[in-house]
Amino acid sequence: MERIVHDLRISETITPFGVGAIVDVLGESLIAADTSWWDRKYAPEISCDRLLARLSPGALRQPPAHAGRAARETPHLLYWRFPAWRFCERCTRLSQISGKNKGRWTNRCECGGKLVPMRYVAVCERGSHIQDVPWFKWAHRGHGAEVTESVRFCRAYKELKFIRSSQRGEGLASLSVHCAGCKRTRPLSELVGAESLQRDGIRCAGCQPWQEPTSETVCEYRLTAVQRGATGNYIADQLSALDIPEETPQSAETAEKIRSHVYFEKVVADNGGPQAEMVAGWIADEVGATASDVLTLAADGEAAEESPLLDLKDGEWAAFCKKLECGRDHGVGDFVVDGWPVSTESGWPPALTSKLTSVGQVRRVREVRALRGFRRHDAEAEFVKADLGPDSKRKPIYPAIEMFGEGIFIRFDEDQLSDWESVPEVRARAEILMGRRNSSPWAQRLAVPEPRFVALHTIAHLLIRRLAFASGYSSASLQERIYAHSDRPDRTAGILIYTAAGDAQGTLGGLVRLGHPDTLMPLLLAALGDADVCSNDPVCIESDRQGSSHLNLSACHGCALVSETSCETGNRLLDRQLVLGGGAVPGLFDHVLDEVRRTAGR
């Protein structure tokens, strides 16, 4: 297969055009090879110990790319032409052959016409493989009476054409592959059935387009024909971390004290007996814990494996909490946060300020994003690593980029949040999303939609939409990071809204200046006011079946949705009712707007 040198913006090489993705560039369709093909001389290593610790032993490397024209001595990425089958827009000839100009391959036919990639490719339903549809073989297969011996054994390999016929309507029936040798014509409407390729005897090669198929890579899963640009052809799995001083959560410090206590082994050995309860009480008194904490830790043994993202967020939450307690930050590193307390006596509505404890102006933060790998066709398909080379098990290379930026961190009051989410109507509302998430295999990769997560996630979206008017950044430039989990050893309740750029100078301060409480509170009130009435009301506010797989309740493009690249969950798990209330459901900020209106009416 033909190798091609090309470049993208560095941020695009992680998502949406990372390893294994199909890239459309200047009319050509290319696919990015895995990191084992990279020239490491042009792929500088990126340092982020806390992210690498959650991945595996390996290395984070920046893709060898630049935002300009590729030359001989500039960093560049290697691509393969995919699909290899193309048709000429002038003579309609269908082939895998490219023209040549002064010894170099071009995307031109021998007649001089431009070659256009075929719109359908074959994807393995469970193995995450992708390959060309073998058009010559497919055109001469089928089960109709017209498939004679002369058709089946046709050898006119250079006589294939891609024909459009307006006499057959506007659907796939109007598109067909015609062989001038045996006069066989087969419409594309026979290609798209679930078992069409299998019935024609076309099997999965068990590899990616840049790999050579071997007898050991034969795949048993069924191929299906899909459009080349379908979003399901590439489902990236990436992980990001803020480069912060790793702080140990309070629960982890307590657990470490318990495990290191001289009498802890006796509790484990007694296995819940009467002596264990007595010794657990001694340990609890000394380390400042409860006896049940000691017994639970002894019974759990080794810690269960958990989500790397949640593990990363635990450390980030602890670091933010420590920064917020220190007030003005005079540091000069890559994690600078000014902390401001939020007082109920500040003059803003108590219904708002009582739910908040502090606000942080994140003056500088460094984020590292890494691509772990990808899947194809289905979220339950086999996972393909970003490095498929010989070192993939010993020391794989993860594509990574570093971003520098600024943001706003808001910490919510844990007691107020716990009291609110214990209300039966609130929990029942969140259970709707919980049931849909659990019934969908791919949705189980999303965060658990407990009440606090849905409410804080929706608030983050509302604030992003409002900040886009005041910060100077578009909403697509702002991103969220939600810390809202009650099932963690240290409960989290906060949101980070930030923007980052891929150069060492970072951003320009338009967002962080809005992080002071006196400036942020009016923006937050305005965001809640924007969400009070949606242009799609009353349909939107009364709805509980919106969005992809109905994973949104009262939330639509008119009120709460933002750019999907800004959202951790792809614009899912949102509900205005859990923020502002509705029907019998009390919202987290239920009476805030009422207080504002009463004050304004005086």
In short:
With about 600 residues, this protein is α+β, with helices and mostly antiparallel strands.
Question: What can you tell me about this protein's structure?
Answer:
The chain is of the alpha+beta class and 602 residues long. The chain is 26% helix and 22% strand. It contains 16 helices and 23 strands. The strands form 6 sheets. Strands 4, 17, 18, 19, 20, 21, 22 and 23 form an 8-stranded mixed β-sheet that branches. It is globular and about 85 Å long. The N and C termini lie far apart (75 Å). The mean pLDDT is 85.
Strand content: 15-25%
- Distance between termini? 75 Å
Put simply, the count of helices is 16
Q: Mean pLDDT score, rounded?
A: 85
